[in-house]
Design goal:
about 550 residues; 7-stranded mixed sheet; 18 strands
Length: about 550
């Protein structure tokens, strides 16, 4: 961080708010939920860019002292990890809308849904009276005035280059602090047209609230189908022919014969071997095994504190599915292959190697990504909607139940663009025959219990700093949906606060996929060129698949 940096003029420090509060603390069933009005307050004071709030400062507010603290739910080890200095992670999701933002409708929608969710109406509290007490989630009163933010941006900037103004504002959030005495989420309203949407909202959430899949599923549960305002959106179902991980496959019946039973038993031998290899690789990476130095890797320490830039590009889901069908693989296999191809194009251009023959003959470089895996079955949209409707836990599991896997990407130039897909399929199939994510989850919990959170955070920090990037993908609605009456044009989520200079995320919605990159603003001044490399790679792969 640069302690001498000044506040960014686009930083969300000058706000226009309307005060309203909704009490979601535990009450009797017949308690009233009438919003309580508060006096108008002035805008909050700005902090210098790059300054982050002090970690671990979870003082007990008056409203959360006494019995409420004891009744609070303990934070999971993964949730506590996201409060550590080097993993103070936030999820930020830009949502493009097809209509101007109706603030009254948005407030009413939030009051009826998101603020009723237990995590979004709780604060993190640690009882200072207990030396080794774990932080807990304690219900509190949600004041929407603290969470709905309408920044005062320069009208000249939003008119001259609205796309750049939106991008700059998103970037400014990566160094803006969040008040940990309140529930850790915000809705930023950017009510000006861009090249893709009439307006936009940005949801910023602390990662300790839950894993990325659960949090984005919760946002989708706040939407409704455009075809039926009372209906939750449709999500794609998993294809029936997809085999899934080896350990999830049932034992074949005896009628299938001894050969089928022997193959099933052998698959578990392979599972044990691959898990052992992956575990050794993971431990070595956490301690000393480092990726080769490339333009894609963080240039120096402290990247988790530096300003990030979030850029995105719309890709055709139909093109991805065409390649998937042609290569007889999955959508994720295609995305892994496209990522390898895009990173390869960027790498060879940045290294100024213009000799094509030399590129093609050069041995491939392996760079690795950290991939978070949600080990808990994500609650369905109906369960999440019911949880928000009742303002209570309905048995649906929630929280950070995540493990890590190390996913390799091969940097190489291939004569046949489809070779990237073959490599991607091979990589994905190999990771299905391993329990690496399960091991990292349970071993992480064991380390926390034996040596404390600092030791677990140190191991995770080693794993991240010795790898090159983060990678993730998520499935979105297959139909047009509305966000509190506003038609959604695109969904572009990402994450920041972890020790990587590059994060790649894919988010599907209707018939498109949003490629979202979160990059170190200083290290990747050509982030839009990197987006072009991904888009061109998909075009070439699609073209090769059509002539196959």
């Amino acid at each position: 961080m640069d302690p001498g940096a000044t506040a960014d003029p686009t930083a969300p420090s000058t706000l226009r708010k309307r005060p309203i509060s909704v009490d979601t603390s535990r009450r009797g069933d017949g308690a009233s939920r009438e919003p309580a009005r508060r006096p108008e307050r002035g805008p909050s004071e700005a902090r210098p860019e790059g300054e982050r709030e002090e970690e671990g400062s979870m003082a007990v507010p008056a409203a959360a002292r006494g019995g409420d603290l004891e009744a609070g739910e303990p934070m999971s080890p993964a949730g506590r990890l996201f409060r550590e200095t080097h993993f103070n992670c936030y999820i930020v999701a830009a949502i493009g809308l097809g209509a101007a933002v109706d603030l009254a409708a948005a407030r009413a929608g939030l009051e009826a849904t998101l603020v009723r969710h237990p995590r979004f109406s709780s604060i993190q509290v640690k009882d200072d009276a207990k030396k080794h007490g774990s932080p807990r989630w304690v219900r509190t009163t949600v004041n929407l005035d603290d969470h709905i933010i309408v920044p005062c941006l320069d009208p000249a900037a939003t008119s001259a280059n609205p796309d750049q103004a939106l991008e700059d504002y998103l970037s400014s959030l990566s160094t803006a602090p969040m008040d940990h005495s309140r529930p850790l989420w915000e809705l930023h309203v950017l009510d000006f047209p861009t090249s893709e949407a009439v307006s936009a909202v940005v949801v910023r959430m602390h990662h300790s609230l839950g894993d990325g899949v659960s949090l984005l599923s919760l946002l989708i549960a706040c939407t409704r189908s455009a075809a039926g305002p009372a209906r939750l959106p449709e999500l794609p179902s998993a294809p029936p022919r997809r085999a899934g991980p080896v350990h999830a496959r049932p034992r074949p019946p005896l009628s299938a014969g001894l050969a089928a039973l022997a193959l099933w038993l052998w698959s578990y031998v392979v599972l044990a071997w691959h898990t052992a290899v992956d575990v050794l690789c993971f431990v070595a990476t956490a301690w000393f095994l480092r990726d080769p130095r490339t333009p894609l890797m963080a240039a120096s320490e402290g990247v988790e504190f530096r300003r990030k830039r979030f850029v995105h590009r719309t890709l055709s889901l139909d093109d991805v599915k065409f390649v998937k069908n042609a290569m007889k693989c999955t959508v994720n296999d295609v995305l892994v292959g496209v990522t390898s191809a895009g990173l390869s194009r960027y790498y060879f251009r940045k290294t100024s190697d213009t000799n094509n023959d030399r590129k093609k003959s050069q041995k491939s470089i392996c760079v690795r990504s950290a991939l978070l895996v949600n080990l808990r079955k994500t609650p369905g949209l109906h369960a999440l909607a019911e949880m928000m409707d009742s303002s209570k836990s309905n048995g649906a599991k929630w929280g950070n139940l995540i493990g890590y896997i190390i996913l390799p990407f091969h940097i190489a130039m291939h004569n046949d663009p489809l070779e990237y897909i073959r490599q991607g399929k091979k990589t994905a199939e190999r990771k299905k025959t391993s329990l690496e994510a399960v091991f990292t989850y349970w071993s992480g919990n064991l380390i926390v219990n034996l040596f404390g959170m600092k030791a677990a955070a140190a191991l995770c920090y080693g794993m991240f700093t010795n790898t090159t990037l983060s990678f993730s993908s998520m499935v979105g609605p297959t139909e047009q949906v509305d966000f509190y009456g506003h038609p959604i044009i695109y969904i572009a989520p990402s994450v920041y606060g972890h020790p990587h200079a590059l994060t790649v995320h894919y988010q599907s919605y209707v018939n498109s996929i949003k490629l979202v990159l979160a990059v170190d603003d200083a290290q990747f001044p050509d982030s839009h060129q990197l987006l072009d490399d991904f888009a061109e790679s998909l075009r070439l792969i699609r073209q090769a698949a059509s002539t196959r």
